[in-house]
Amino acid sequence: MNDGAAPRVASIRIGTGPRLHYAEFGAPHAEPVLFLHGWPDSWFSFSRVLPLLPHSIRAIAIDQRGFGDSERPDSGYGITEMASDAAAFLDALHISRASVVGHSFGSFVARQMAIAHPHRVGGLVLIGTGFAASNPVTRDLQKALHDLPDPIPVTFARDFQASTVHHPVPSDFFNQLVTESLKLPPRLWRLAIDRMVEYDDTQQLEAIGAPILLLWGDQDALFSRESQENFLAALPAARLKVYEDTGHCPNWERPEFVAGDIASFVQRA
Prior knowledge:
By secondary structure, the protein is α/β, with parallel strands linked by helices. The protein has one domain (about 10-269): Rossmann fold, CATH 3.40.50. Helices cover about 35% and strands about 20% of the residues. It contains nine helices and eight strands. An eight-stranded mixed sheet has the order 1-2-4-3-5-6-7-8, with helices on both faces. Helix 4 packs across helix 5 (about 170-180). The longest helix is centred in the first third of the chain and has 14 residues, at about 80-90. The chain is globular and about 45 Å long. About 45% of the residues are buried.
């Protein structure tokens, strides 16, 4: 494990696109695993998981365009564009193929990457995903964001992040999550959710040939158990791991279990 090690932090321009900030654990020659965070997060969303992964994994967690410390161009925030960013990021690091881990918003980016760039994705770990991105909860969130002031109130950011957590997380970690989320400009709080809710890959899921592991907390407030079953009906070869007494963010709430399940999956895939 990389327990206690500090990440290597850098940024790199992806082709003609934005400069993306990222954090990395593991040896450069190890098996690459790309981590795609949720909304309105950053690479820090995986900071409790990455140090627990074995040295055999090169874990690379990016700030997607507009998020965290990455550049914020005026456009390109659709799920399809974000997936193209992820493939271009692998190009920039001269990585031909990687396993991809996506949480929530990032899980839809990971899925689109596997659909549009199948040769680049060796396996998918989808944390807190749903069969479809649009559901009553995400549509209600979308409506709530339309009246948000600029800047985003700290209380709103804190309350939203707290609403996704069921099992307690360390206070310093949670406080930093809130700080990271406030790096996202108000226009992108709205735009990114708009683009996620309008994204629909449900008719394309069966085109994914990579092995898939779903990691889901049984107290997830955004995506239900029924949504997990619908995903499995579309892709019967996928596996579902359920964490009890866990909310929408197992990577925050159960990092030891998530790290172990990712490591086992990557070894098999």
